[in-house]
Amino acid sequence: MSRKNKIKILITGGTGMVGKNFIENHQSQNYNIIAPTRDELNLLEFDKINSYLSVNKPDFIIHAAGRVGGIQANINDPFLFLLENAEIGKNLIVAAKNQNINKLINLSSSCVYPKNMDAELEEDFILTGLLEPTNEGYALAKIFVQKLCSYINAENNEKFYKTIVPCNLFGKYDNFSLETGHLLPNIINKIYYAKINNNNKVTIWGDGSVRREFMYVNDFTDFLYYAINNFSEMPEVINVGVGKDYSVLDYYNIVAKCLDWKGGFEFDKTKPVGQKQKKVSVKRLKKFGWKCKTPIEKATLETIQYYIESHLNVS
């Protein structure tokens, strides 16, 4: 099939972890994918987005761009996490509506769920309780964008703007910074440096008991292509998770084993740890016909290999 006859997909955040892995996925050859950089398309400027969509006329949009970061980054700057994520989501979705683009996937986050729930997080739980304060700004922006999509669907039966709520993602092109990265890439960074510096102790925030669910980004991009191919059957809001979570201490032990680091851990209980658990329900996902395939150990080892190779290349 020639490029001009393929379905044209615009993915925002094409230089981020999800965007790059989506483009590198072997299924990308079946589509005409456009992934403008921020210099080519600043999502904070509505008129430029509107013009870009008018000129390029994508058949499908995947909104994966955003200001993202770990717990410390969210605590440090909740204002920008709320403002920028709400603004870019609003600009893109309103421009898509204006340009009569009927199919859109909006990527949300499991932080939209109420804090400290003991049950698996079901899609209907959104807006039923208080949010976790450490990432409230980001969560509010994501909820706003999801609702904007829902309201557009409700007023126009030709529009299908759907929201995916993924669990935490990790993998190739992740952010391994201790200041702005998420938990698992942070752990890889900390234990790798402990090993090469012959340190026998690594500090864990809290007591290591809080639980998190991580999915390999390769699996998530496979899901995105599955969603595109089965878009009419996909629910308006759907969790995408592994169906299994681990404690923070478990993740430290998994990384230590993969790196063959023989040290031990100490706990700093003065540090914030966020929600007690964030395991999303995969009931709708199973009904939709998709499940995660890569075991956490294999995904972690491959991510460590990428981290070491990219670190050595920079060095």
Task: Give a brief outline of the structure.
The chain has 315 residues and is an alpha/beta fold. It contains ten helices and twelve strands. The longest helix has 21 residues.
Protein traits:
41% helix, 10 helices, globular, single chain, Rossmann fold, six-stranded parallel beta sheet, 15% strand, 315 residues
What do you see in this structure?
The strands form 4 sheets. The chain has a 6-stranded parallel beta sheet with strand order 2-1-3-4-5-10, covered by helices on one side. It is α/β, with parallel strands linked by helices and 315 residues long. It has helices spanning 17-24, 46-56, 71-76, 78-98, 136-155, 183-196, 217-229, 248-259, 283-288, 296-314; strands spanning 8-12, 32-34, 60-63, 103-107, 160-166, 168-170, 201-205, 211-212, 214-216, 237-240, 246-247, 264-268. It contains 10 helices and 12 strands. The N and C termini lie far apart (42 Å). It has a domain at 3-174 and 214-241 and 279-294: NAD(P)-binding Rossmann-like Domain (Rossmann fold, 3-Layer(aba) Sandwich). 39% of the residues are buried.
The largest pleated sheet is described as: 6 strands, parallel
CATH superfamily caption of the domain at 3-174 and 214-241 and 279-294: NAD(P)-binding Rossmann-like Domain
Helix residue percentage: 40-55%
Element order, helices and strands?
Answer: EHEHEHHEHEEHEEEHEEHEHH
Low-confidence stretches: none
Overall pLDDT level:
94
| Percentage beta strand | 15-25%
- Radius of gyration from the alpha-carbon trace, in angstroms: 20 Å
Shape: globular
Q: How many individual helices?
A: 10
For the secondary structure, the number of strands is 12
Structural class computed from helices and strand pairing: alpha/beta
Strand order of the largest sheet: 2-1-3-4-5-10
What is the straight-line distance between the termini?
A: 42 Å
Q: From the 3D coordinates, which CATH architecture of the domain at 3-174 and 214-241 and 279-294 would you assign? A: 3-Layer(aba) Sandwich
CATH topology of the domain at 3-174 and 214-241 and 279-294: Rossmann fold
CATH class value of the domain at 3-174 and 214-241 and 279-294: Alpha Beta
